[in-house]
Amino acid sequence: MKKAFKIAGLILLSIIVVVIIIGKILSSRPAAPTDYQQAVQTGGEIEAKYMANGGYEVVVKESAVLQQFDKFIVYYPAELEGSDRQYPVIVLCNGSGTPLSKYPTVARHLASWGFIVVGTEELYSWNAFGAEMCLRYLERLNDNEKLEDTLNIFYHKVDFDNVGIVGHSQGGVGVINAITDIDHKGTYKAAVSLSPTNKELAHDLFWDYDATLINAPIMLISGAGGGDDWVVTGEQLQALYDDIHAPKLMARRLNTAHNAVLYSANGYVTAWFMWHLQEDEYAAGAFTGEHAEILSNSLYQDQRRES
Hints:
Blueprint: H1 2-27, H2 36-39, H3 45-51, E1 58-64, E2 71-77, E3 87-93, H4 104-111, E4 116-120, H5 129-143, E5 146-147, E6 150-151, E7 158-168, H6 170-178, E8 188-194, H7 199-204, E9 218-224, H8 234-243, E10 248-254, H9 261-264, H10 266-278, H11 281-284, H12 293-296, E11 300-306
Parallel strand pairs: 3-4, 3-7, 7-8, 8-9, 9-10
Antiparallel strand pairs: 1-2, 2-4, 5-6, 10-11
């Protein structure tokens, strides 16, 4: 028995070491290429439209904070500064060792479609602490006309009725925990989990989550082909999908490595949020109806959908 526990401990230690090494490698280089929107192949008109930038000029705001994730980073449409309307929100959950500063092109892309996009420099996001703090930060921005004696451009500009969340890998676990296990879980109207760490590995790493508690519409996308997505195989993604009893969709992008799922699926990620948070019926065509584009897109496999 002691030998079995020793072997199990060594296996768990090996897994942790691998995750730490991958995190260090990822933190040393950009996680999303600056030209990914041009380089990534698309397989449908809707995917292509939302893989391109939207029509909004984007501005970035950073705010230091006494937390382990150092600062909040907000990407937002420049017109917000002189507008009287509210803007929908997308919260970002980082992958292992991948702070938002390593994939700004993804955040900027989403913001160009009219979203306030918020994230942090958090390196370990599985428990959704950073996501929770992002929403608390946005509440402060939305509720105060002035901050530190300075006029606050976000005052009454945040649309808390239309909030989404997306995360990759460990961040995919953070997405599930954000919509099921934190104070603001009921705030989220839609979610996307990209290559979420499979249940068994997450459990071994003490990153547990319970997908049966999901209530918000959620899309799951992972990599496939040319070697499986090692963080979540097709079988493991299907098991996660089966646990969910809310409106859901899953797909696996062909010939896409685990790390590349962060940005390669961004056409459909953007369309998902345009549909759910901005009532964009053209974007909805990617996911709804008998001829939903993603279901017949030749760049994807194992598509499943339940309303």
